[in-house]
């Protein structure tokens, strides 16, 4: 089963979902802004992605700047920020089993599906 962390307002997220549908992939849509992921879920996704918390953050988001997160170097504090402010989570994220990919650019989703 494939899960997509999806934001319907994001064009890249909509494109990724469309790719899954076109390829006939049965997927679970997780609207992470409506139901924010727990800290543990974020840690699990980071492990599947193989990236740091900062790499999962939307660093151009005004909220990122307002919170002064560019000055924070402690991974656990960055994870806390992602859990508290899901708007900071880069999207879309496509997850299958123990692996995941951030679908930017959306071609990464196509590669991921193989």
Characterise this structure.
By secondary structure, the chain is an alpha+beta fold. It has one domain (2-113): Glutaredoxin, CATH 3.40.30.10. The protein has helices at residues 11-22, 39-49, 62-66, 75-84, 107-113; strands spanning 2-5, 27-30, 93-96, 99-102. The chain has a four-stranded mixed beta sheet, with helices on both faces. The longest helix is centred in the N-terminal third of the chain and has 12 residues, at 11-22. The mean pLDDT is 97.
Structure summarized in a few sentences:
By secondary structure, the chain is of the alpha+beta class.
| Overall number of strands | 4
Q: What composes the largest sheet? A: 4 strands, mixed
Order of helices and strands: EHEHHHEEH
Low-confidence stretches: none
What name does CATH use for the topology? Glutaredoxin
Give the neighbour order of strands across the main sheet.
Answer: 2-1-3-4
Q: Classify the helix fraction into a percent range.
A: 25-40%
CATH architecture: 3-Layer(aba) Sandwich
Distance between the amino and carboxyl termini: 15 Å
């Amino acid at each position: 089963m494939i899960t997509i962390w999806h934001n319907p307002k994001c064009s890249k997220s909509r494109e990724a979902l469309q790719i899954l549908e076109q390829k006939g992939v049965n997927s679970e849509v997780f609207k992470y802004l409506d139901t924010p992921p727990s800290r543990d879920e974020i840690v699990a996704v980071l492990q599947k992605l193989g990236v740091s918390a900062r790499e999962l953050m939307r660093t151009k988001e005004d909220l990122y700047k307002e919170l002064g997160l560019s000055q924070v170097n402690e991974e656990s504090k960055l994870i806390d920020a992602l859990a508290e402010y899901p708007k900071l989570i880069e999207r879309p994220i496509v997850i299958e089993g123990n692996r995941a990919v951030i679908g930017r650019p959306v071609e990464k989703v196509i590669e991921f599906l193989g």
